[in-house]
């Protein structure tokens, strides 16, 4: 113990937040005149006098912006322990969030400030005081405490190449992001993360975050629910995905012990729930068909044995056991009949598949290009495996079926149609069971719609088919496997 008591100045900073066109916006002022950091943007702030920190931020807000803030509307945001460049004295900064006030912000002290504007919190201005930027970055990351100690020769202005911010998250809580181990893994891969946004699907074991870095980059961090999905996704991202020239994400880092990956963001808007005109839908589904064809044309991995199990048929009993209490009369018999018909054709040739090709995993780019995400179910399977979850959109829309297969470049063979019907049947009973257990009503209803098609015998009208008409097998269909186009 040195016996020297540590004393530091205390200052307060206002984070005034309003809703803007691009999301939350914060109020900043530009320092001017004979003051520290003149010409740099900064949050309204000041020193604490003989008062509480809450009273101080209320007073400084009025003195600098003219806004009247009720102390009851002041919310703690983050505390930053800071040391300025040049070997200056350390200080403690209390940053407070305020979302309600009276009045309109204006420059009240023109000798200290020459501008005052609202900025999207995701697009802060430059040049900006690094200390203030550190506080706002910590606020966005949800950290209650942060350290920001400059090196002596650091600039006063924020410079992403000189990042001194260290976030301290609350005890017993991971904050808005994942646990500490996944956080550390992600930051070793891409640098300091300033914002974690949970974008997981509202279902069991989905763990995905959209992250933003201190220098403005964007990535996705995903923790797989099991080792199999982690192995499949990393193999796809290292193997066939890069060959498609930007149609999917790029793998930045992977950790098999955490079952975690960091991948680049893919440009585009999710097709899940997107409202399109009929003509736009036809264009999109033709593009999806073309994308599926590119995936299926990918070279097989050198480790591939050339054979795979006969679709999901070896798991039929397990699927039926799980769904039987939820099925309607006759559903099980129709599923078994569809599988028996497919078995009569023998196995299909395996190709590289996405494994979960459906609108929620597809993005529409500004240039009209369709791209994909989420390849944790990718494996060598018959090509019809990738048609299973697209077909639901063809119900009553033969124009979409024709567009899809036009993009794909060829119709189905009889053998492929039989295997597709069987695959859809099993996917349906599996979806009904899993969706009921996981509280996913969309998955349940998709399964029930598919089983209803089996009842009517309509399957999917409009899906073009090559009529081989050989003798034997199922009436009207030829035995034998379907090969590559």
From TrEMBL:
Pfam families in alphabetical order: APH, NUDIX
Cofactor(s) the protein requires to work: Mg(2+)
Superkingdom of origin organism: Bacteria
Region feature (Disordered): 460-485
PROSITE patterns: NUDIX
Residue ranges annotated for the Nudix hydrolase domain, each copy included: 7-141
Biased segments, Gly residues type: 473-485
Keyword Hydrolase recorded: yes
Keyword terms of this UniProt record: Hydrolase
Name of protein: NUDIX domain-containing protein
Organism (species): Streptomyces litmocidini
């Amino acid at each position: 113990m040195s016996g020297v008591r540590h004393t530091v100045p205390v200052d307060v900073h206002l984070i005034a937040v309003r809703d803007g066109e691009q999301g939350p916006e914060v109020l900043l002022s530009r320092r001017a005149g004979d003051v520290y950091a003149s010409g740099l943007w900064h949050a309204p702030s000041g020193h604490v006098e003989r008062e509480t920190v809450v009273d101080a931020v209320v007073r400084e807000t009025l003195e600098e912006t003219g806004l009247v803030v009720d102390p009851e509307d002041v919310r703690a945001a983050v505390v930053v322990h800071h040391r300025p460049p040049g070997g200056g004295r350390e200080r403690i900064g209390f940053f407070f969030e305020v979302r309600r006030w009276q009045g309109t912000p204006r420059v009240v002290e023109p000798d200290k400030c020459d501008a005052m504007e609202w900025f999207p919190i995701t697009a802060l201005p430059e040049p900006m005081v690094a200390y203030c930027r550190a506080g706002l970055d910590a606020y966005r990351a949800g950290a209650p405490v942060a350290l920001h100690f400059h090196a002596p020769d650091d600039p006063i202005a924020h410079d992403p190449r000189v990042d001194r911010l260290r976030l301290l998250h609350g005890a017993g809580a991971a904050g808005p992001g994942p646990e500490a181990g996944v956080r550390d893994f992600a930051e070793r891969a891409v640098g300091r993360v300033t914002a974690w946004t949970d974008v997981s699907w509202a279902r069991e074991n989905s763990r995905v975050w959209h992250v933003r870095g201190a220098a403005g980059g964007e990535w996705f961090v995903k923790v797989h629910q099991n080792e199999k999905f982690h192995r499949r996704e990393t193999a796809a991202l290292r193997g066939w995905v890069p060959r498609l020239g930007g149609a999917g994400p790029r793998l930045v880092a992977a950790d098999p012990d955490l079952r975690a990956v960091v991948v680049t963001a893919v440009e585009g808007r999710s097709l899940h729930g997107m409202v399109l005109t009929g003509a736009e839908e036809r264009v999109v589904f033709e593009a999806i068909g073309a994308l599926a064809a590119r995936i299926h044309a990918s070279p097989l991995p050198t480790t591939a044995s050339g054979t795979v199990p006969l679709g999901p048929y070896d798991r039929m009993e397990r699927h039926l056991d799980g769904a039987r209490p939820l099925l309607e009369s006759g559903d099980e018999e129709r599923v078994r009949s569809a599988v028996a018909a497919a078995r009569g054709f023998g196995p299909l040739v395996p190709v590289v598949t996405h494994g979960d090709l459906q609108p929620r995993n597809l993005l529409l780019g500004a240039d009209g290009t369709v791209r994909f995400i989420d390849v944790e179910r990718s494996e060598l399977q018959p090509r019809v495996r990738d048609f299973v979850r697209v077909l639901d959109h063809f119900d009553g829309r033969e124009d979409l079926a024709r567009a899809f297969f036009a993009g794909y470049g060829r119709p189905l063979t009889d053998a492929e149609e039989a295997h597709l019907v069987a695959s859809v049947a099993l996917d349906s009973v599996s979806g009904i069971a899993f969706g009921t257990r996981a509280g996913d009503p969309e998955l349940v209803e998709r399964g029930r719609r598919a089983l209803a098609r089996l009842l009517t015998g309509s399957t999917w009208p409009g899906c073009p088919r090559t009529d081989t008409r050989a003798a034997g097998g199922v009436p009207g269909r030829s035995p034998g496997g379907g090969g590559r186009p």
